[in-house]
Amino acid sequence: TPIQNDLHEFYALV
Amino acid sequence: MFEARLVQSSILKKVLEAIKDLLNEATFDCSDSGIQLQAMDNSHVSLVSMNLRSDGFDKYRCDRNISMGMNLGSMTKILKCAANEDVVTMKAQDNADTVTFVFESPNQEKVSDYEMKLMNLDQEHLGIPETEYACVVRLPAGEFARICRDLSQFGESVVISCTKEGVKFSSAGDIGSANIKLAQTSNVDKEELAVTVEMQEPVTLTFASRYLNSFTKATSLSNVVQLSMSPDVPLVVEYRIGEIGHIRYYLAPKIED
Predict the structure, then answer these.
(1) Most CB contacts within 10 A, which of A13, B64, B153, B220?
(2) Interface predicted TM-score (ipTM) of this complex, two decimals
């Protein structure tokens, strides 16, 4: 089954 | 002093309906340009980004930038007190710890005000760059809601595949599998009924159906929904909010182990 990614893996905190 | 007046309180009700499935509380950042909200759901899988432009309000005044942390459950209770045809005004003093909602009936015979306590919320803000997406699909919002609902019966995941011919939504699980293909509309009489695909390269991505279903709570805001996808980046699901702004949902894809 595919693993759910977290948004932090795509966008940096500002 | 902050004051924002909207003749159609139903817009605010619909906005709240569109975000309260994903968020328990959120900070409304008010500035001269309008009201912005950015918040992730508790699991940090999806993000809501909303913008209401100041020029879309019937009256708008914001002397100093203010951030109002609101409990969305409480806000829902208050907005239930407004009739759909009421005029709504949100008001707050600078540095206030409360916000006031004023509802006026169209003939001005009934005026109600509700004061709500604000919250100090720790907010994580993500920097989302302007992105050219490999595929941009527009389809009727009601159709998208129907597809998400139908497919969520089959599995926890929905695979969205976009090619220049159209877009395919698939799901599989214990009871079997389902595929829904939408072809690009050849003859477009009404834009809100059309399916259009702008494609630079084909994209296939997998998403949790639970979140897609939550996004469709925004269906009453707009006839059309726009899906933007690129390989290995979050999906963007966008609904316009009349002439006043938009709500965008970002959803991290699932990736094969």
Answers:
(1) B220
(2) 0.96
The whole-number pLDDT of residue B126 equals 96
Residue B231 pairs with which residues in a beta bridge? none
Residue B180 — φ and ψ, nearest 5°?
Answer: -125, 120
- Report yes or no: B255 at the A interface, CB cutoff 8 Å: yes
Tell me how crowded residue B137 is: count the other CB atoms within 10 A of its CB. Answer: 23
The predicted-structure confidence for B123-156, as pLDDT tens digits, reads as follows 889 999 999 999 999 999 999 999 999 999 999 9
Query: Looking at beta carbons, which residues of chain A come within 8 Å of B128?
Result: 11
Res B96: pLDDT = 87
B176 Cβ under 8 Å from any chain A Cβ:
no
A4, B45: Cβ pair inside 8 Å? yes
**Strands of chain B, DSSP E:** 2-6, 25-31, 34-40, 46-53, 59-62, 66-71, 87-92, 98-104, 111-117, 126-127, 135-140, 157-162, 166-173, 176-183, 196-199, 203-208, 224-229, 235-241, 245-251, 254-255
Residue A14 clears pLDDT 80, i.e. is over it: yes
All residue ranges of chain B with pLDDT < 50 are none
How far apart are the CA of A8 and the nearest CA of chain B, in angstroms?
Answer: 7
Strand order in the sheet with B98-104: B59-62, B2-6, B87-92, B98-104, B111-117
Nearest chain A residue (CA) to B211? A4
Length of chain B: 257
The residues in B 41-100 lying below 8 A from A, measured between CB atoms, are: 43-47
Facing residue for A10 by CB, picked from B43, B125, B233: B233
Residues pairing with B28 in the sheet: B68
Q: What is the pLDDT of residue B24?
A: 97
Whether B18 and B212 have beta carbons less than 8 Å apart is answered as no
